[in-house]
Amino acid sequence: MKLVEFLELVAEALDCEETLVVEDKVGGIEGWDSLGILSIVSMLDGLGMSVELDKFEKIDTIQDFVTLVGFVDE
User: Fold this and answer.
1) Which terminal Cβ of the chain has fewer Cβ within 10 Å, N or C?
2) Helix axes 62-69, 3-14, angle to 10 degrees
3) Strands (E), the chain
4) How far apart are CA 33 and CA 21, in angstroms?
5) Contact present, 30 and 39 (Cβ < 8 Å)
6) Residue 46 in 3-state DSSP?
7) Which among 30, 16, 34, 29 is positioned nearest to 64, based on CA atoms?
């Protein structure tokens, strides 16, 4: 999966109409709230990836999130 495709899945999980890029600050993203994070965790489970909820507190940018989940662009 390409990073762009992964970010599209994240945006879909957040019900966000914006195109996400790694430079985006998560605080400014529509849907990046407690319910959105639960949707992301569910999406990650479906992809066979897991992340502890408390780790989300340290995320400042989409790049931080991508690094946290260990996504590797193919």
Assistant:
1) C
2) 110
3) none
4) 18
5) no
6) helix
7) 29
Please tell me what DSSP assigns to residue 33.
S
Number of residues that make up the chain? 74
* Tens-place pLDDT, residues 9-57: 999 999 999 999 999 999 999 899 999 999 999 999 999 998 888 999 9
Residue 30 is given by DSSP the state T
- pTM (whole model) above 0.85: yes
Contact (Cβ atoms closer than 8 angstroms) between residue 24 and residue 14: no
Q: Give the pair of three-digit tokens for residue 19.
A: 């195109």
- Cα 53 to Cα 22: distance, rounded to the nearest angstrom: 20
| Dist. CA 56–CA 1, nearest whole Å | 22
Closest by Cα among 7, 9, 10, 6 to 21:
7
Question: Residue 57 has which token pair?
Answer: 């507190």
